[in-house]
Amino acid sequence: MSEHSMDKPTPNPWLPLRTLTPARIALGRTGTSMPTGAQLDFQYAHAQARDAVHLAFDHGELSRQLAERGRDSLLLHSAAPDRHSYLQRPDLGRRLSDESAHTLREHAQAYPGGVDLVVVVADGLSALAVHRHTLPFLTRLEEQAASDGWTIAPVILVQQGRVAVADEIGELLGAKMTVILIGERPGLSSPDSLGLYFTYNPKVGLTDAYRNCISNVRLEGLSYGMAAHRLLYLMREACRRQLSGVNLKDEAQVHTLESDSTGNPGNFLLGPQND
């Protein structure tokens, strides 16, 4: 082997697989190291993830866009006073600040009988995800929720919020169900992934076992329509069975060309099912 052959990228037979996934596979190598291009791509993706975590929640713009669509909103804050505290103390992000809790109690007087559904939007670990995906997803969700006859509270916006903050909000409003839209922890190929967490009969102190999660809602992941379809199935089943979490499975049927032609929903792993 010549002295200069080590400087040339080694041919990579796995390269075609990169067209099938955004995952960091088949990066190749130069000698015993990654190629410069792959290393620079990694550093860029890492910087995007860090930026997403620290991006400020533009609740004012989101509130304005909601108002343009005829939806009221209410801004609250968790017990975490700033971003540094939020990242260091996850427990503070799970509860409302005293001032916000007082504001919500006053707001709840407008709903003496409670409401069926409260939608909470929190920045979480990626405000970028919330900025990009909240409105298109909510459009699909609320159209179907209204057709089911559910009463819906104004959208609750929470700064420095974590998933469990929706439990306190739902309890104070007397809500039958809560759904929180929250920015998920960024990955190296997904700095804008939106997570949905659904809880039936929310109250302070519930664990994750009482919630259902739908993750990776974004253009490159789970589509808005599919996410709304799955969430509505869970909500309808929760109302029927009066529970959510580990005892409520996502068994929503998804229509495909194959299932439409056979009349059976089928399973994409097993193929169409015959009677």
Give a verbal description of the structure.
- The protein is built from nine helices and six strands, in the order ααβαααβαβαβββαα.
- Helix content is 38%, strand content 15%.
- The N and C termini lie far apart (63 Å).
- With 275 residues, the chain is an alpha/beta fold.
- About 3% of the residues have low confidence.
- It has a six-stranded mixed β-sheet with strand order 1-3-2-4-5-6, sandwiched between helices.
- Helix 6 crosses helix 8.
- The protein has a domain of 188 residues: Ethanolamine ammonia-lyase light chain (EutC) (Rossmann fold).
- Strand 2, helix 6 and strand 3 form a beta-alpha-beta unit.
Could you give a short description of this structure?
The protein has 275 residues and is α/β, with parallel strands linked by helices. The protein has nine helices and six strands.
Looking at CATH, the homologous superfamily of the domain at 54-241 is Ethanolamine ammonia-lyase light chain (EutC)
CATH topology of the domain at 54-241: Rossmann fold
Residue runs with pLDDT of under 50 for 5 or more positions: 256-263
- Tally of contiguous helical segments: 9
Alpha carbon gap, first and last residue: 63 Å
Q: How many DSSP-defined strands?
A: 6
Q: Structural class, judged by helices and strands? A: alpha/beta
Q: What gyration radius follows from the Cα positions, in whole Å?
A: 22 Å
The largest sheet, given as strand count, sense and whether it forms a barrel, is: 6 strands, mixed
> How much strand content do the residues show?
5-15%
What is the name of the CATH architecture of the domain at 54-241?
A: 3-Layer(aba) Sandwich
